[in-house]
From TrEMBL:
Entry's EC annotation: 6.2.1.64
SMART domains (UniProt xref): E2_bind
Keyword Manganese (UniProt): no
Recorded name of the encoding gene: UBA3
Protein name: NEDD8-activating enzyme E1 catalytic subunit
UniProt cross-references to InterPro entries, sorted A to Z: E2-binding, ThiF/MoeB/HesA, ThiF_NAD_FAD-bd, Ub_act_enz_dom_a_sf, Uba3_N, Ubiquitin-activating_enz, UBQ-activ_enz_E1_Cys_AS
UniProt record, GO biological process: protein neddylation
Pathway: Protein modification; protein neddylation
Organism of origin: Oreochromis niloticus (Nile tilapia)
Domain of life of the source: Eukaryota
Domain E2 binding, first and last residues per copy: 366-454
Reactions catalysed, as given in the entry: ATP + [NEDD8 protein] + [E1 NEDD8-activating enzyme]-L-cysteine = AMP + diphosphate + [E1 NEDD8-activating enzyme]-S-[NEDD8 protein]-yl-L-cysteine
Family: Belongs to the ubiquitin-activating E1 family. UBA3 subfamily.
Active site per UniProt: 229
């Protein structure tokens, strides 16, 4: 039902609404830089019918026109996935592509982030990527600034789940509800790609209509570590030996002074862990401990695989093309890709979670006994697999006044509110049914919870 509604009602509105404010595209470069047959390959998809085309789609020149002249796309992330996405989109006929990335280029990016060269090391990724696309794909306008509301489609190629959730929350905050009914023209589709080594996924999210990032948060479990008993008494892998040194030996021996935490970017630290890991490995006749592996384990590095990025970016760019042209039904709505061993891929429909704290519009209940301590509430917010918050700030309203119960990010307020953590909810004066407003880096909006006392 969702997709039918999307295709018939929403897509035309998305196109119309943002059509109402046409952008000036780089001095009309679009119409002057085309050469004969430039878009022939795209026209084959849009200007004639085919077996996979949506039955209601009327082949015409309009879709291509929309893509070339009007459709505005925001690409978030200009790393491994982002470079692929920008190249794919620019070569598919999208000319109004904006890119954002907070990172600067590192020399280790150059093997796969092919829009960057050695001379670019140290420069902002977004600037260099935009310059490269502009110089290689004539007529493509790719600035590196943006305002979310202007975009028809947003594509994420991020490696951070927190940033992804924040973006998800941003698009949810732009939704307009009238008497509880979603105004479809306020929806901006989000295409999200993610990779980790040889695994990847691509998904299509219609904020407010289909499963959002937070609805499926259980799919991104927190980092799983090796069991402690394996590390301590039955190591089998070189990684177990490195973890033994990292977790047990470093804090015990404190080789660089009492307060010195292990720094994965400090070569002396890594060298120490490497030597100790070699000794431990020798004890158990385990081979394979190297300096490189040591750093990889300490820094939790999962090697980036260029071909996984290419496959996922291709899937994402195809979804952008399908939605922008409306000629084909989009992915519904989650594709898994895995080439660890052979090649495996499948698609399923991720379902919305009724009480999703990001997109459900209803405050979630927090079940605690009045004698629970605030610390327990805080632990729940960070440890629950469906919330996974990072440093939640909890406020409430008492006697018509805002009261901060706990806030971590500002040192002076943290100090002032820390004693609250050991107080019970009762002692804090919180009542059954009380609303708690929680702010966190995982969302641009404050999340409302309702306190439900258990007996
Ligand atoms: Zn949701």
């Amino acid at each position: 039902v969702g997709w039918e509604l999307f295709r018939q009602e929403i897509l035309p509105k998305i196109q119309r609404v943002r059509n109402a404010h046409p952008m000036l595209v780089d001095g009309d470069a679009g119409s002057t830089s085309d050469w004969d047959d430039r878009w022939n390959h795209i026209k084959k998809f849009l200007e004639r019918s085919g077996p996979f085309m949506h039955p209601d789609f009327e082949p015409s020149t309009e879709s291509l026109q929309f893509m070339l002249e009007t459709c505005k796309i925001l690409v978030i992330g200009a790393g491994g996935l982002g470079c692929e996405l920008l190249k794919n989109l620019a070569l598919s006929g999208f000319r109004n592509i904006h890119v954002v990335d907070m990172d600067n280029i590192d020399v280790s990016n150059l093997n796969r982030q092919f829009l960057f060269r050695a001379k670019d090391v140290g420069r902002p990724k977004a600037d260099v990527a935009a310059d490269f696309i502009n110089s290689r794909v004539p007529g493509c306008f790719c600035p590196s600034f943006y305002l979310y509301l202007e975009f028809h489609i947003i594509v994420c190629g991020l490696d951070s789940i927190v940033a992804r959730r924040w973006m998800n929350g941003m698009l949810l905050s732009l939704l307009v509800y009238e008497d509880g009914v979603l105004d479809p023209s306020s929806i901006i589709p989000l295409i999200d790609g993610g990779t980790e080594g040889f695994k990847g996924n691509a998904r299509v999210i219609l904020p407010g209509m289909t499963a959002c990032i937070d609805c499926t948060l259980e799919l991104y479990p927190p980092q799983i570590n090796f069991p402690m008993c394996t590390i301590a008494s039955m190591p089998r892998l070189p990684e177990h030996c490195i973890e033994y040194v990292r977790i047990l030996q470093w804090p015990k021996e404190m080789p660089f002074g009492d307060d010195m935490a292990l720094d994965g970017d400090d070569p002396e630290h890594i060298q120490w862990v490497y030597q100790k890991s070699l000794e431990r490995a020798a004890e158990f006749s385990i081979t394979g401990v190297t300096y490189r592996l040591t750093q990889g384990v300490v820094k939790r590095i999962i090697p980036a695989v260029a071909s996984t990025n290419a496959a996922i970016a291709a899937a994402c760019a195809t979804e952008v093309f399908k939605i922008a042209s409306s000629a084909y039904l989009p992915l519904n709505n989650y594709m898994v890709f895995n080439d660890v061993d052979g090649l495996y891929t499948y698609t399923f429909e991720a379902e919305r979670k009724e009480n999703c704290s990001a997109c459900s519009q209803v405050p979630s209940d927090l079940h605690f006994s009045p004698s629970s301590k605030l610390q327990e509430v805080l632990d729940y917010l960070t440890e629950s697999t469906s919330l996974q918050m990072k440093s939640p700030a909890i406020t409430t309203t008492m006697d018509g006044k805002n009261k901060t119960l706990y806030l971590q990010s500002v040192a002076s307020i943290e100090q002032r509110t820390r004693p609250n953590l050991t107080k019970t909810l009762n002692e804090l004066g919180l009542a059954d049914g009380q609303e708690l407003a929680v702010a966190d880096v995982t969302t641009p909006q404050t999340v409302l919870f309702k306190l439900c006392f258990t007996s």
